[in-house]
Amino acid sequence: MKCPIAYVSIIEDEEQLLVANIGMAHTTLPRELSFCAHTICQPSVLVVLDTKNDERFRENPMVKGDKGAVKIRYYAGATIFSRDGHALGTVAVLDTKPRREADQEHIGMLQHLSFLASEKMTQSTIHEDTGSDSEFL
């Protein structure tokens, strides 16, 4: 996908937790600044080709580069769902350069990665519920 930033996150009431991440200096974000808080409100992949041209994000400090923040210009994220359909978080990629078009292959990859993350989180929940110390294969 050729993006310098990628992460798996959990969206909580007040913040976004980056549970795995490449390219971000911090591991939490206030939810009101989170691109992913918008992603979890829809069932499909959210793609923002140029954040400066998107009403939802153009004033975001991560788009404007406030206080030394990375200037995010491209965002694509897919929701991680629980088995019962609740949005838990996202798998997302970000870039400092805008894009001209959405790459359908990349969108498919994000959908697949979000599915795998959903499965892993479900397995972890089952693992915690059973109190088992064995790893799922």
Runs with pLDDT <50, length 5+?
A: none
Major β-sheet, in short?
A: 6 strands, antiparallel
Order of helices and strands: EEEHEHEEH
Number of helices: 3
Strand order of the largest sheet: 3-2-1-6-5-4
How many domains, as an integer?
A: 1
CATH class annotation:
Alpha Beta
- CATH topology annotation: Beta-Lactamase
InterPro entries: GAF, GAF-like_dom_sf
Protein name: GAF domain-containing protein
Domain GAF: 27-117
Structural descriptors:
GAF-like_dom_sf, 28% strand, GAF domain-containing protein, Beta-Lactamase, 137 residues, 3 helices, alpha+beta, six-stranded antiparallel beta sheet, GAF
Description of the molecule:
With 137 residues, the protein is α+β, with helices and mostly antiparallel strands. The protein has one domain (5-130): GAF domain (Beta-Lactamase), CATH 3.30.450.40. It contains 3 helices and 6 strands; from the N terminus they run E-E-E-H-E-H-E-E-H. The protein has a 6-stranded antiparallel sheet. Strand 1 and strand 2 form a beta hairpin. The chain starts with a strand and ends in a 7-residue tail after the last helix. The mean pLDDT is 89.
